[in-house]
Amino acid sequence: MSEAIHHFIEQYGLLAVFLGCVAEGESVAILGGFFAHQHVFVLWHAFVAAALGAFAGDTFFFILGRSFADNRHVVRLRRRPGFRRAYRLLNTHPNIFVLSNRYVYGMRLVGGIAAGLSTIAAPRFVILNAISSVIWAVVFSTIGYVFGLGAEQLIGQALMKHERLFVGLGIGLAVAVLAWFVARNIAKRERDKEF
What we know:
Number of strands: 0
Low-confidence stretches: none
Strand content: under 5%
């Protein structure tokens, strides 16, 4: 069974990193770095998959805001907690906002829509988004890679390859659950501030 999982991750792991990073993908980028440390795939491949996923996700949300402002889904997203604050920040500090929005968990979607609705020029957004995506991917994939080094030092060489995969999946799941709780808490505080 573990060989099948290992083969599946080798075959589709980078695609999963890309798709996971299209959405809120910190834990997926970290997991990509971890699997790169385990030699499931090459580290720079994890960087590229994470950067492309992050770039594609933010660009998609930007296009949604820019082209479909009156669509019911975009209107509903504009009602999300923190949208007004993101829009205000974007209009006062557009470069800093686009470069840093990705690092605020739960704000990528709102930030992308807000950028699309703002007056920021599309080429400027694309360039800033590309820079931010590359830095973000390198930072979070490296965290996963370094964590893999630390886990190997703590656990030692006795951990077999298939067990490493299960540990990596468990770590990714734990990070995702923790991030969900943090984002939920932040969103609740933002809702309370807006009312």
